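just leaving the lab so this will be short. below you get a single protein, a line of residues and a line of whole numbers that encode the local backbone shape. id like you to explain what the token line says about the fold, in plain words if possible. thanks a lot i owe you, the record is right below:

…
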Amino acid sequence: MNLKSERRGIHVDQSELLCKKGCGYYGNPAWQGFCSKCWREEYHKARQKQIQEDWELAERLQREEEEAYASSQSTQGAQSLTFSKFEEKKTNEKTRKVTTVKKFFTASSRTGAKKEIQEAKAPSPSINRQASIETDRVSKEFIEFLKTYHKSGQDIYKQCKLFLDTMNHKRALSIEEQSECAQDFYQNVAEKLQTRWKVPPEKVEKAMDQIEKYIMTRQYKYVFCPETTDDEKKDLAVQKRIRALHWVTPQMLCVPVNEEIPEVSDMVVKAITDIIEMDSKRVPRDKLACITKCSKHIFNAIKITKNEPASADDFLPTLIYIVLKGNPPRLQSNIQYITRFCNPSRLMTGEDGYYFTNLCCAVAFIEKLDAQSLNLSQEDFDRFMTGQTSPKKQESESFSPDVCLGVKQMYKNLDLLSQLNERQERIVNEAKKLEKDLIDWTDGITKEVQDIVEKYPLEIKPKNQALAAIDSENVENDKLPPPLQPQVYAG
């Protein structure tokens, strides 16, 4: 394997994680490097500009059609009138398409489209029952939580119900516009909590977390990986890409983690479990919590390996390695769901926002991974990607041509013996652990049995007397004759 003499490692300047507008918040690749606040401002400007251009185009087309209609009416007579009406109808169709943009800002009453979406995404009865149980549980928890807010709690509940009704009417809109509605709702409720309802700052964050949990538990099945987007296509592309990169080793990424240390190996397994578990959560905040737990396990693994606190330059390569090793399901859909419907304050600041931004960078790095990123030659990279060879096989063949076959075989045998020794030690340790668990289990069962016997002692009752025969009474006093004996009579 032709590696360069100096390994560069994966380095991302912390300034690159921040919003490119310079506001100081964390940016996001899904928002073209902006933070949530700046992205919404840019999005509104672009949308208003597009609306204005559409209106100008519609007015220009209408003027042209009217002029054409007037000229054709004066020159062509009755036959051209029919054609002009056809042109006018076509212009009206174009204008109607343009004015549809304006209708996006009002409540939609297109129940037919809503029914089609519901029928197309109708889940199985078992999933419906499970979702209904979880929804009921979250509703009860939300109501109990709002009771501590007294009068303002009732207003918060009314605002949430109004928002859910609005989202049900706007379900036919694009996912970006539904996301805009959710972000506006978060911002308005946070402002009302601080100004109108006079909620203390330390309670505002808790209230926003509960509000997000309540509304997104209900909206999850409609807004997570909707059919109107290409999220599912991106998920399949990322999964296919990660499978093709199965040969990437920690050394290629300069990952400062030694998995031969049992504690480090456990941390790596926990990190992979957390990143995979993210897909099972329904609330954006819970998905972020899984990313945070995964990241903390990574930092612990690096700290144990290096015997010193981990740095940001160590964290990102290890996170990339964890994603490659775990291949989390529906990774892009989860990232998009968090980006669209999470409380923006969580993504802009704090450790949740920092870890989420690094995860987005890790996915972007995997999508663009090439030979230069791994310090490989293009020839080796192509052979690894096509499966013609693997790094491990090539490492075993990296002896000099002058080395005799005996030395090669000796090193190969030593390597096998080392692997067998490690496996044997692992088996012995597991066997001792199993033996200890069995002894503890036996002692526990014995103690439980003794406790039960002492609490409920065994009482042996006397045996019931057998029922007497029907004619067993007064046998001695009846003086019955002896039984008849068979006799033979002469014929």
